[in-house]
Amino acid sequence: MTENAWVQCIAYFAAVIGFGALYGPYMARVYEGKPGWLGRVFGPVESALYRLSGVDPDEGMGWKTYAAAALLFNMLGVFAVYALQRLQGLLPLNPAGFGAVAAHSAFNTAASFATNTNWQGYGGETTMSYLTQMLGLTVQNFLSAAAGMAVLAAFIRGLRARETENLGNFWADMVRTTLYILLPLSLVMAVVLVWQGVPQDFKPAAKAAMVETVHYDNNGKPASTDEQDIPLGPAASQIAIKQLGTNGGGYYNVNSAHPLENPTPLSNFVECWAILALAAACCIMFGVMVEDRRQGWAILAAMTVILVPMVLFCAVCEQRGNPLVAALGVSTQAVEGPAATSGGNMEGKEVRFGIADSALWAVTTTAASNGSVDSMHDSYTPLGGLIPLFMMQLGEVVYGGVGSGLYGMLVFVLVAVFVAGLMVGRTPEYLGKKIEAFEMKMASVVVLIMPILALVPTALAVVSASAKASLANPGAHGFSEILYAFTSMANNNGSAFAGLTANVPFYDILGGFVMLLGRYWIMVPTLAIAGSLSRKKIVPAGEGTLPTHTPLFVGLLVGVVLIVGALTFVPALALGPVAEHLMMIGVR
Hints:
- The protein has 19 helices and 6 strands.
- The protein has helices spanning 3-31, 37-53, 63-87, 103-114, 124-127, 130-160, 170-196, 235-244, 265-289, 293-320, 323-327, 354-367, 382-393, 404-424, 437-462, 465-468, 475-490, 505-534, 551-584, and strands at 206-209, 227-230, 334-335, 341-342, 429-430, 433-434.
- Strand 5 (429-430) and strand 6 (433-434) form a beta hairpin.
- It is globular.
């Protein structure tokens, strides 16, 4: 690790945590219906939306009603995005004249964007019209992120409530999240990105003169290819919310490695910062809403304790490079930030970002259920690529998606509290609520469904001829590509090992259902836990109560998260990245 790399990492986490400390209390006020001065700006819009839809924002919902509303709204989003893709050839704002997207690809993309996954088996700039990008994908980036944050707000209300069924109103939570939290930040970030050179227009593709002719006709003679098309369009607005909402779907095919989607070092820092910014703020918001900020800081500390070593380990693995390349006598010298050079594995990485920024982005995006990339994970060293994969396999609870990451981590908190209770022989409690059989059954569903959705489809793919035909690499790395794909979809992440051609019926259809189940089969049990807790009395803390804001509990929580992930996925990792690493260093 160079000095430049250390400075970048320290500045990055300081910016993320500092923002979370400032923005979290404001988010708590939003969910209490007190958005401050922004209420004067967007308040009339909020009131108009309630009147038009016939919603009473003060009407409380039990967990079943809240879950039904969330599922209905999200399924409507699936149908809307599917229809836009199938009909885009007949709709306006389509300067490239793109036709209908294939049915299997349209289903996969619709499921992907509605579930906050943003898995993309297509090239956005060569497949989607401007209208589909804006009305379909960008809108779902807002709504899917808002749905996760709304469920988090309901879960927090369940923890702090006393003998009530009321978890809040889903429709009011969605409107307030979008208007007061996501939209203002996205507007500011989009302006910053436009300033840095990201396109935001409705112009057709620009024409650039070619330096040399690169195509040939059937007779082997140079063809007339004097120009290259450079796709433009409303990119900045989608990129802002894709990062802030931990969506991750890129406007361009290579995502934030594209020079128009991420043109400068400043845009790279801002986009990477946005991956974790709201997830960190959610932790502080939680502490404010339960009236004990120590609880939020403890959870944020546990997440950071896991994340930082993973970032450093990935960076070190990439800095060490590939010994097989070194054995060939190929130079591995590379630019690493301003006026600095170092060796390492630069394959698949932008020279303008270097190894440190690439590793930081790769690990944070897979920790945070974002899935955007500024380098190609498929080109990482085996152990360097193992880290992004393992971060997803922890359940996307290390920061995680906005809302969904924290409510997933809170489920692990309940498991940790339960384990501690078993150790001392007393009924476990969290924030004054007894954790009993029903909560642990639902927590078990939340913890176990993701490994099932990741491992079972992986097993099906490795025995399916049509699935294996999509692989560009045989052996251990090919297995890693399949495992990464279904781990990504089951965790609603969206990143991929690019050596797998996934835009085929097998992966599109099976992956679409994996994404839907991975989102909602976890969301519904989480709301069931919230509903159960909301009906309970608050039990005063006693001498035997386990403090859940201390370093001891942070360590216990970290251990539970890592042990569950390790026990579940280590055998699969041994067949993929670990086996590939052993072959790389000559172990047979």
